[in-house]
Design brief:
alpha+beta; 3 strands
């Protein structure tokens, strides 16, 4: 799409593809990080070519009821963020995604939420930050609980060893 739009050359694409393979990340992120293309130009070309909207997630506030529509494991699996319902159609859930053309993710999200999904483009770093902020607390609480249980078990074992040694 970027070559066809004249945003990058074929040589730049090949360079970015080699870097992408090396780093194991999305092509768009590779293009921006390597300075081949600006984030703004990438967004402009993708939104125009794909016919999707772009959303800047920094500073967005998310409703807990909307966040609870998609389980955390699905959010992490597909790297998506539920935004809210379409104001003209309450059966359409808007979801921020790195790849708004990921039909498998869209189908799974539709099944999980029982809603039609309208995919919106978001940058990977912004999406990861939002997911960490709104879903990361749950992970942190689970980790803290696991740590507490582990310490509790260790203390019980120490007491049992001490008790047996005193007996």
């Amino acid at each position: 799409l970027l070559v066809a739009a004249g945003a990058i050359t074929e040589d730049q694409l090949q360079e970015a593809l080699a870097l992408q393979k090396e780093k194991g990340q999305k092509l768009g992120k590779t293009l921006v990080e390597s300075g081949i293309i600006s984030k703004e130009l990438l967004v402009a070309v993708l939104t125009q070519q794909l016919g999707v909207e772009y959303i800047e997630l920094k500073g967005c506030k998310f409703d807990d009821d909307v966040l609870s529509l998609i389980p955390e494991d699905i959010v992490l699996k597909y790297n998506v963020m539920p935004l809210g319902f379409d104001e003209n159609n309450p059966n359409v859930l808007r979801v921020a995604m790195i790849d708004p053309m990921d039909i498998i993710a869209i189908d799974d999200l539709s099944i999980v939420t029982n809603c039609q999904i309208e995919a919106v483009l978001a940058m990977e770093d912004d999406l990861n930050e939002a997911i960490g902020k709104y879903y990361g607390n749950h992970q942190a609480m689970e980790a803290a609980e696991a740590y507490r249980k582990e310490n509790e078990q260790a203390m019980l074992s120490d007491k049992a060893i001490t008790f047996c040694a005193l007996s």
